[in-house]
Amino acid sequence: MATRNWILSKAIIAGVILGTGTLQVLSDEVPQALQWDPWVSFAVSSRDLNHRPGNSSLNEDNAYIQLRLAATGSVFQRADFSWKVDTRTYLSSSNVVLFDDDTDTVREPNSDNNYYFQLREAWIRYHGLTSLPGEHLTLGLQRLRNGDGLWWDVDIESLTWQGDTTQLDWLLAVGEEFDTYRTNSDLITRADNTLRWFGNIAWDWTAYHNIGASFMQSKQDLKDLSQARQDTSIGANADSLWFGIKVSSGWDQRNPYRTFAYKAEWIMQQGESVQPFDGNMLTYRDISAQALDFGLRIDLERMSLGAMYTRASGGESAEESERFSQTGVHTNRTRAFGNRQYLFRFNEAFRADISNLTYHGLFATWNPDPKWESVLLLGHYQKTDNASPVYVGGREIDVIDGQSNVGKSVDINVTFYPEDGWFLNLNVLRLRAGFFDPGTGLTNQNNDYRITLESQFRY
Prior knowledge:
It is a single chain. This protein is mainly beta. 6% of the residues lie in helices and 56% in strands. It contains one helix and 25 strands. It has an 18-stranded antiparallel β-barrel. A two-stranded antiparallel ribbon has the order 4-9. Strand 7 (153-164) and strand 8 (168-176) form a beta hairpin. The longest helix has 26 residues, at 2-27. It is globular and about 60 Å long.
């Protein structure tokens, strides 16, 4: 299976790149069809993370540079065909960040390089399947993100059909992560040999108010079931269906004609997987879980005020798990604060999943003019089931049975968008800071923090 996936992934990406390479030659004759989008970013960060899988900790300061070169173009001057390639180069003062296994990749053993090269996107798109505006069919490695990051926020090899009309938006997709397309790294176990069918649809039933549905069917096929002993929230070889219904108004984007924004979503999860139980014994368990997510925001002239509530079920027996697990391609990064800022919903430092978690959040934004935006986010976390663990990056962290208080968090995000012509074409200057104070329900009582100052120069 691994060999087949490797061959298939390389064939898909090679075909797209070769195709776009040919198109680039053609674009020399039609230069207006080729558009470059390069940028470079510089950042310094400091973090002390003590609530990680395996009771590990990470304390380090780091500086890095990231370079991006992306290109888009049309095919044979046809408006109904287009393509894109996005490549990244990352250079860091420390390779510790590159070994961080709570991300979507892990470094290969004995890799001590302080850099990597990565292919982020490589796809071909057809725009003429229907006459609907904003409709397109895309094949290749592509970036897919839903509005709040609870479902998916991922670069994935996939075939998608999307549309964005005045009253109806939709996505239908099938995909699988075959590779990281990054030097000296591998996929994490929960992404390996996992085929996904997913999509959503949203309909504006009246002006500025919509109702929608999302789904994902995920099926994993690992030959070595001992990997289930890693205690992932969903287990190994999971065959799982998520289905959600949502009503919302302006939640992901500020609407200048509305004062109130809201969101209410219910998500059901059903399926089965191989999970550890009672020590090292592996057993198939049925999954029957659910999650709720609510938000309300008031948008004033220069500020916004809001509240959020999330509850995901927990608990388990020898035959059944009621523990809600997220899709595995989520990030929980959302833009629900009344401006352009993306924040980790469940703290920049902690970055919890909503497995067996109940969360309350309050936030305020201050946008004094178009060049400045800021967000203050306060959060409180509890176990939904006191006898079950909580999860970060899909993996368990150490907890104390019978204690429900997981902790409190504070996030601050301040961003400056300079005018055109600023120093070296500075595009964004941003400070992101997150602090997590553990509660009595966690074994490790040390605080977590993560602070990053980053700048981006666009050309």
